[in-house]
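Section 5.1 Outputs to date
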Amino acid sequence: MVLCSLSADFLILFFTEALFYSGAAIFLLIIDRLWRPVEPDIAADSLAPQLGQRISSVATLVLSLIIPMVTMGLVWPWTGPAASATLAPYLVGIVVQFAFEQYARYRKSPSWPSIPIIFQVYRLHQLNRAAQLVTALSFSVRGAEMTSHNLAINSSLGTLLNVLQLLGIICIWSLSSFLMRFLPSTLRTT
């Protein structure tokens, strides 16, 4: 029964993620179709990142990838699929965002500045959903008998929750640095 429930939860998670990415793709294609005739190349020229912004962007990307992968490897022996249920959607989101950004830049789409905003806000939602899952798992473990195995599970869930909070800070930093880069250029043009 537990396996069936776990499988259903993973299917719901998969289809929720797929639905979001499909909706985001359609939204960005609509932006591309509507703005392409009006602004041919302004978005790509006005937001060219400087060296410091590129370094910050790469550092954020590297941390956003390495921290969850290392954490998943460390807590997997005690949490098992819970580690992948909490961190895999986040990692997939980073890869999908990167693919969307590369495709938009290749096509010189005027929609590419929208991509980081859409994905970072959704990534915060993913982290919140993951934190709720970890918190629920922690409460279920606390209700069980405190054996050394259950203490290790509880400790790894605490580590997972701390990592989710750290990833949330990195995500907010990334979003705010992008907005700080984007907003001054729009204020200068108006």
